[in-house]
Amino acid sequence: MARKERAAKAPKEPGRIRQMVQVFHMTRRYDPSVVWWMVLGFVGSVAVFVLAAVFFSGGSIVGVVLWSVAGLLAGVLVTMIILGRRAERAAYGQIAGQPGAVGAVFKGSLPRGWAGSEMPVAVNGKTQDAVYRAIGRGGIALVGEGPQSRTRRMVEDEKRKVSRVLPNVPVTTLFVGPDDSAVPLHRVPRELRRVKPQLTKPEVLAVSNRLSSLGTALPIPKGVDPYKVRPQRAR
Predict the structure, then answer these.
(1) What are 52-75's pLDDT values in tens digits?
(2) Where is 172: in which H helix or E strand?
(3) Do 155 and 209 fall into the same domain?
């Protein structure tokens, strides 16, 4: 039996190169311009190093070769960075507009120095609009998910709660939704990165501990769909 179980093991995961090829094909389906951006990044990087070889190698063949090899490596690196950024944008583009999309960003793409939960702090069970909260050196960020006509009031309510507990901590508000003035989903990390740091690391920890006393608008344990939560019937 043990031998049979060993033979029936799951197939090996694809290698790194195969994974990159799969990511490339997925990204190209959503963003066809990724090919041109990758080519431009590679050629541009190689061209810069070739020019550097001409001006700084002093006519040495070894110097030209070393600069050229460095240019090829830099070109590959820049190409991979472009692919990664475009793949992330394509992935978020596919879930944009769906409930919980901001939570996915909070889970995997918050900039350094920011922390937030994939679970919202406020949810409208009828419209599935939600408000998410992140804490960082820039203070507190509240991100409304849904049309601003419905989420603005929810965000303002959360802002009043936070200001009541922490009146001296700056609060930044963002809106992700179908409105023209809304922030695109993939740009949420960039917008948070632009917030000017105003708190020290100990202050961030103190703010986080203080906000933990606020809880959430719904009793949502981790791993439970907030939109399937139902109040218990009175006995």
Answers:
(1) 888 877 777 887 888 888 889 998
(2) strand 171-176
(3) yes
d(CA 157, CA 131) in angstroms, rounded, equals 10
- What is the per-residue pLDDT across 157-205, written as a single tens digit (0 to 9) for each? 999 999 888 888 999 999 998 888 889 888 888 899 999 998 888 888 8
Helices (H), 59-198: 61-95, 101-108, 148-165, 188-194
Q: 229 lies in a domain?
A: no
| Three-class secondary structure of residue 146 per DSSP | coil
Kindly state whether residues 71 and 130 are assigned to the same domain: no
Residues 121, 131: contact at Cβ < 8 Å?
Answer: yes
Q: Check whether 113 has a pLDDT greater than 60.
A: yes
Give the C-alpha separation, 98 to 81, whole Å. Answer: 27
Per-residue pLDDT band at 232 (split at 50, 70, 90): very low
79 and 115 part of one domain = no
Is residue 45 within 8 A of residue 37, CB to CB? The reply is: no
Pairing state of beta strands 171-176 and 130-136?
Answer: unpaired
> What is the average pLDDT score of the chain?
80
Range of the domain at 58: 16-95
Question: Distance between CA atoms of 102 and 84, rounded to whole angstroms?
Answer: 19
**Burial zone of 218 (CB within 10 Å; 0-12 exposed, 13-18 middle, 19+ buried):** middle
